[in-house]
Structure formats: structure tokens, C-alpha cells
Amino acid sequence: MVIDGGFAERERERVGELYWAAFGDKLSPAFRDCPTGARIVAESLRADRMLVARISGEVVGVCGYYEDGRGAADLSWSLLRRRLPRAAALRSLVLLAILARPGRPGTLILDGICVDGAHRGRGIGSALLGAAAAHARRRGSRAVQLSVVDANPRAAALYRRVGFTATGRGTVGPLGRLYGFRRYTTMQKQVDE
Hints:
The protein is an alpha+beta fold. Helices cover 38% and strands 25% of the residues.
């Protein structure tokens, strides 16, 4: 397995499929239908904000992160407006804003980690998290932070196993039914040690 920064344009569709498979349930309420959401999310992905795991040249996992206040899925107003009617773009922007995680000085905020279902259990997720920690150290960050929803205990167990600890909890309140989860836990790992 090889983990590199970024992906080639020819890999965008594959990276988008992985990202949508992992996060489509919570992103889909922002779009009129899943195919529209999947297409827009794939278009929004920023190669310069992603670490990509490949086996024999095939993309098998990705880990996005925030850079300069924008995540790996850069679902900006301008992109949404180019792809959706004004009212739909505004609705999408509002529903997506609730899911955004603000940056913190000295902390690399992760924006989604996902591994192809056929390749889970092989250490790819752990390797991506290790690569994220190394990336954070190179850029001078002291910690890596992520959020995990209460509906994903397997991911939370992985994060604890590789050294992340809970630093806070939050809720999406009454919108939980819409997003498919009610609560999330913010977890952090120190990387400056």
C-alpha cells in the first residue's frame, strides 16, 4: 500500500464514490436526490486536501482535511449555485453549514476518512490516520482532530485504538432525524510529541 497526497483527475470519480459511500447518508439531505449529491460532492473534492491510499495503483481509501478554512469537500456557494437552482443551492448551503467543523490554530482538522468496504480490516484506515498525523507535524500542527457520529462506533473504536481521545461532544438537535445521527464526538490526537 502507498499513501500519497492528492489524486489525479482520472481518479476523481473513484474518490468521489468512496467519499459518497461513507458520507452520503449525512450529506444527502442537502440535495434533491442521491445522484445529484454524489455528482456535486465528487466535483467538489479538492485533491490538495486529501491523502489517498492505493494498492496496486487502485484507490482504496482517502482521508480529507481542512486547509485555509475549507475542507476536502469544498461545497462552496459558487459551486452549488453553478449546479443547482438558486433556492436549492441556498437550501444545500444551509444544510451543509451545520455539518462544517471550524478550524483551530495548530490543529489539522480531518474532513472524512473512508476505506473501500472490500479492503476494510487491513490497516488502511490506521495507515491513513498515521499519514494525517505525519502531514500535521510537517505543517507545524500540534494535533489532529476529527468528529465521529454516534451511529459509527466502529470508526470511534479505530480512532481510540490509534491514540485519539474524546475532547468534546455535540448534537445536531432536531435535525438528527434528517441527517441520520443525533450526536457526535470530537476526538483529538497530539502529534507534536
